[in-house]
Amino acid sequence: MTNPARVRRSWAEPYKIKTVELLHMTTREEREAALLEAGYNTFLLRSREVYIDLLTDSGTSAMSDRQWAALMLGDEAYSGSENFYNLVESVQEHYGYKYLVPTHQGRGAENLMSQILIRPGDFIPGNMYFTTTRLHQELSGGQFVDVIVDEAHVPGSTFPFKGNVDLRKLEQLVSDVGADHIPYISLEGNVNMAGGQPFSMQNLHDLHAFCRKHDILIMLDATRTVENAWFIQQREEGWGDKSVKQILLEICNLTDGCTMSAKKDSLVNIGGFFACNSEEIYLKAQNLVVVYEGLHTYGGLAGRDMEAMAQGIRESVEEAHQAARIGQVYYLGEMLESAGVPIVKPIGAHAIFIDARAFLPHLDQDQYPAQALAAEIYKEAGIRAMERGNVSAGRDPETGENRHPKLELVRLTLPRRVYTQAHMDVVAETILDVFERRTEIRGLEMIYEPEYLRFFQARFQPIEG
């Protein structure tokens, strides 16, 4: 019999640290001045003003020694770089798509796909919007339609697969507009705006059957689909004995192509790709990428970046890596939840999402509670988070009014392989300190609004009184 005292209940990161970046802790006075200069927008803070940076996991992860070694193998030929062919092989092995066009990052791939597949007047259903994805769809003349399950819009719901597509909503859309006006469904793995929530394999199989019946493509946003595969392994009956690598390949086999921001799952600081199985679509993307990114064998990337990406893809499917990466998110989330901080449930993979409407119930949504809370967290301890709510949702192009999403969230996004458990302790303690004085937090008013993707560059000031 195993001695209970000897059972290991803790876990450790599956790596050791070779190089460190020294951090600087600012004073409260310095942070207040920085926040004022940044217009209360955490995107406009300078990196040196930030102590723990949880703004995003996009391009902020730490590369491994093997990835750094891969940089030295860069073939910087303008055409036909050997690194391109290595990247193609890595994508074919792990994602299964036949054709690949590299791009500088995910939105480059979104631009290609939108221009190729969308005609003015088309409707593009998706399991919740993402900011850049929807904008590219709109700029191409399409209209996004949300067909995610209702549970995704309820922060407190513990439904395990909030990223699922509601096939009844999709069927209604087909009935209303006709399948000919739906070029594809945009399916995101581990839905960001819903709190990093996965779809199930069963839902994808059902969606695949529906789309084959109506001749609609399934185009995957594969940015965090490795993490989605991990959740399927952990939560869905019948998949527990499959590896993350096997599940990822099965997901992709049920789709027709993907856009990819490799700056997340693939553990690189820059890069992405568009991949598909249709030669016709591929040839169009191959031609269009030359206009916007670079030649089709580098797509805006250096050869060394493609080689690091190929290696990062291989590392991303390692079981120990995903368990530790998502385990750290759980560590932070469970500390906050146990203290009564309202967060999106169940805990997702890449971030903890604080329910700002429940955190600051005294603020109207047009006082931008999530933006105000993100600013307050920074002011408290130099921790940078980001808003995912009214500001990110933007304005309705027809009415000009704020869209008022049901989810008004602050995202605490964890870069991969960057911070320790001690950093998470500091983050949790900071959030709890802010939570204790939450009734003192004032709302914000927007004083500058750019035309597109306003959350990146908008500026605010506290509402007086």
Average pLDDT works out at 95
Structural class: alpha/beta
Spans of at least 5 consecutive residues with low confidence: 1-8
What topology, given as strand order, has the largest sheet?
2-8-7-6-5
Q: What is the H level of CATH, i.e. the homologous superfamily of the largest domain?
A: Type I PLP-dependent aspartate aminotransferase-like (Major domain)
Strand content: 5-15%
CATH architecture of the largest domain: 3-Layer(aba) Sandwich
Q: The CATH topology of the largest domain is what?
A: Aspartate Aminotransferase, domain 2
Choose one word for the global shape.
globular
Helix-strand string:
HEHHEHEHEHEHEHHEEHHHEHHEEHEHEE
Radius of gyration: 22 Å
CATH class of the largest domain: Alpha Beta
Binned, the helix content reads: 25-40%
Number of strands: 14
The biggest sheet amounts to: 5 strands, mixed
End-to-end gap = 66 Å
Whole-number tally of structural domains = 2
Helix segment tally: 16
Describe this structure in a few short sentences.
The protein is of the alpha/beta class and 465 residues long. It is 39% helix and 13% strand.
Features:
three-stranded antiparallel β-sheet; alpha/beta; 2 domains; globular; 16 helices; disordered N terminus; five-stranded mixed β-sheet; 13% strand; Aspartate Aminotransferase, domain 2; 465 residues; Aspartate Aminotransferase, domain 1
